[in-house]
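Chapter review: from sequence to fold.
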Amino acid sequence: MKQVNAGIPRRAFVFMPFAFGGLYALAARKDHEIPDASMEGSGSEVTIVLFTDQGERKAPVQVKKLVKPDAEWKKELTSEEFSVARRKGTEVSFTGRYWNNHQKGLYRCICCGNALFSSDQKFESGTGWPSFWAPIAKENVRELRDNSFLMVRTEVLCTKCDGHLGHVFDDGPKPTGLRYCMNSVSMRFIPYQKS
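The C-alpha cell string follows.
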C-alpha cells in the first residue's frame, strides 16, 4: 500500500520566504489610528464641519488648530506621510493608494482625522492622483497661493492641522469646474459600511 504524503508540498517551501516577508512587512508597518478631528489643539481657533465615518454631516464646530513640533509629527507619521503632509512634498503620480480607488467612502486627513473629501465628489482626472470636484465641506480645507517651482498655483491644506494635501486647478468637471488634485499619502480612506 502506497503511503500518501499529507505534509506540505515541496513547492510551498519556495513561496514561504515571500509569505513570511509579507507578514513581516505588515507587522512592521507604521500604521496608526486617525485622531478625532474634534480634538483640541493648541493653536488659533478654526471652524470645521464634523462628519461621521458614514459621511453624515454634523454641525460646524470651533476647535483649536492642531499644532505639533516636527519631532512629534515624525513619530506619528511614516517618512513619506511626513515628507508630503508636513513638508509639502508630492507623491509620484499613479503610485498613491487612492488614485484608482472606486469604493464609496470618506477621505480623512492623515494627520488629524479631519473629514476632507467624499467619494461622491471624486472623478477620474487621468492625472494619477485622486481628484475631486469639491471638498466635503469648504470649511474643512483652506487654500493658499503657492509660488514654488516658478509657477503660480493654489495649495490645498487641512484647516485643522495645516497638513499639505495637494493643489486645486480650474480644469475640473461640472458643477464646480475645479479639480482638487490630492496626494493619497496625505489622506486615509474610510469605506462606508453597508447597513
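Two observations follow directly from the output. Residues 10-28 form the longest helix (19 residues). Residues 4-34 have pLDDT under 50 and may be disordered.
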